[in-house]
Amino acid sequence: QVQLVQSGAEVKRPGASVKVSCKASGYTFRNYGISWVRQAPGQGLEWMGWISAYKGNTNYPQKLQGRVTMTTDTSTSTAYMELRSLRSDDTAVYYCARARYYDKPHPDDAFDIWGQGTMVTVSS
Amino acid sequence: QSVLTQPPSVSAAPGQKVTISCSGSSSNIGNNYVSWYQQLPGTAPKLLIYDNNKRPSGIPDRFSGSKSGTSATLGITGLQTGDEADYYCGTWDGSLSVGTVFGTGTKVTVL
């Protein structure tokens, strides 16, 4: 079946980096984009950016530019999200989600398949 | 701080109907499609509605979506205990370097 399976929970010190993986199966990876969304404890959803699994072009919100990098490996149908200079307020569950459009970030996009989530805890 | 405003909570008895509003502006809802997501406790979000009013396969027609101007609405009829969850609207914001935005979220309680 179509699914996204993410890597396991992480605990990091402030200032460190974390890299979360998201392996796709059951569909043609290159025909879609991947977005990353995070959710701090007890809070709502925050979009972190989008990557084309076809061309690798990315789109990040201004808030995270310079701290986040999204990549894909089409040979293994895996997407990655790296967040640097971690702070305590980066503590959250991080989700990958399949985006309908593969060529560029699209205003009408929606996220139809979600990974199970990866808990990232930032604590000294 | 989300740019899309939803009521914190709504409630109704089993079998009844609830509606959830999502208020935005011309830079987001006013000019783009809206999607809706259901998040059951301890699980990942699930797409309920896309393109304002379309349901993915497998989503029952008890769930419906609409949009008017800079606001959108999710309706749930025939409320069931399994519908207890958090619901989020989402859309694109065309303001500089903002991207996809989500609503503040609404907790649905089945009385």
How would you sum up this structure, described in words?
The complex is a heterodimer of chains A (124) and B (111). Chain A is mainly beta. Chain A contains no helices and 11 strands. In chain A, strands 2, 4, 5, 6, 9, 10 and 11 form a 7-stranded mixed beta sheet that branches. Chain A has a 4-stranded antiparallel beta sheet with strand order 1-3-8-7, with no helix packed on it. In chain A, strand 7 (68-73) and strand 8 (78-83) form a beta hairpin. The radius of gyration of chain A is 14 Å and the shape is globular. In chain B, 0% of the residues lie in helices and 44% in strands. Chain B has no helices and 9 strands. Chain B has strands at 9-12, 18-23, 35-39, 46-49, 63-68, 71-76, 85-93, 99-102, 106-110. In chain B, strands 1, 3, 4, 7, 8 and 9 form a 6-stranded mixed beta sheet that branches. A 3-stranded antiparallel beta sheet of chain B has the order 2-6-5, with no helix packed on it. Chain B is globular, with a radius of gyration of 13 Å. Classes of the chains: A mainly beta (124), B mainly beta (111).
Blueprint of the fold:
The complex is a heterodimer of chains A (124) and B (111).
Chain A: E1 3-6, E2 10-12, E3 18-25, E4 33-39, E5 45-52, E6 58-59, E7 68-73, E8 78-83, E9 92-99, E10 111-114, E11 118-122
Parallel strand pairs in A: 2-11
Antiparallel strand pairs in A: 1-3, 3-8, 4-5, 4-9, 5-6, 7-8, 9-10, 9-11
Chain B: E1 9-12, E2 18-23, E3 35-39, E4 46-49, E5 63-68, E6 71-76, E7 85-93, E8 99-102, E9 106-110
Parallel strand pairs in B: 1-9
Antiparallel strand pairs in B: 2-6, 3-4, 3-7, 5-6, 7-8, 7-9
